[in-house]
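Write out the 3D structure for:
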Amino acid sequence: MVVAGPTASGKSALAVALARALGGEVVNADSMQVYRDLSILTARPGAEEMAGVPHHLYGLLAAHETCAAGLWLGWMHALLPEIWGRGRVPVVVGGTGLYLRALIDGLAPVPEVPAAVRAEVSADYDRDPAAFAAALAAVDPAAAAAIPPANRQRMIRATEVWRATGRPISAWQAEPHRGGLARPPAVVAIAPERDWLYARCDARFDAMLAAGAARQVEAAMAEGLGPEAPLARGLGTRALMAALAGALPWDEAVARAKQETRNYAKRQSTWFRGQLRADLVLRPPQDPLDSPAIAGKVLEILGERRGGGCKSSAPAPESE
């Protein structure tokens, strides 16, 4: 089953509660919580929050490593049979829409891009982002129209696929997808009221700072974390890095990080509302997430899905 929702909505705590009630294990579907560093700023659950429930796919990668959806889906294809084999229910939780869509529907069969091509494309983007965007528009106008020029990761991905295959990424994405689940999982979506969610975003960031988030960022910078590292895309990370480097006043950095978090929560909410087929939608604060009735409703849904076990229909693609 899947628990989805925007950042700061309470989905991690709900996933633990459901796992305890259903005899399950929690599996991460958050693109930042797969990293080892910055556990506070990425809101990775700690030992107390895990409440004795097995958790998987947290804290696996170094800051400079990229966790593409295909890599994550490959981990899932290896992990899910193990959980089912123990007679347990996988409770997949996260707010990264691409990961959840990959799990449910699969990914386009985009070939793996050689590392040399990836490095060359990255250097070209950093040298002149405007010229890079124009070059992409010339070979793949559909992708260029859909990707903001400032979105470095997606711009690079579209271009490296073109250079490696001679075919636009939009054409690859139009191919039949593979690697998704054979049957749709039960999906619980958290769709909070906006004011409630924004207040939680701000309060959580203050709590992160009080818990030592800035110290973790400073330590990671001392170990070589730069603004272009995949981990630096985490909410508020670049703002705190700029403040710690003396390039941004502290109060402005905190305000920028909070605004970034609220903006992201809004985009996630919009995506889930339009793209995710949910069996149960919870709308806090009207729907309290700690209600025992939620587990009962989920049990009913899982019963309708023959126990909730959905086996993979194909191997995970190598990259996407």
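Strands lie at 2-4, 24-28, 55-56, 89-94, 187-190, 280-282.
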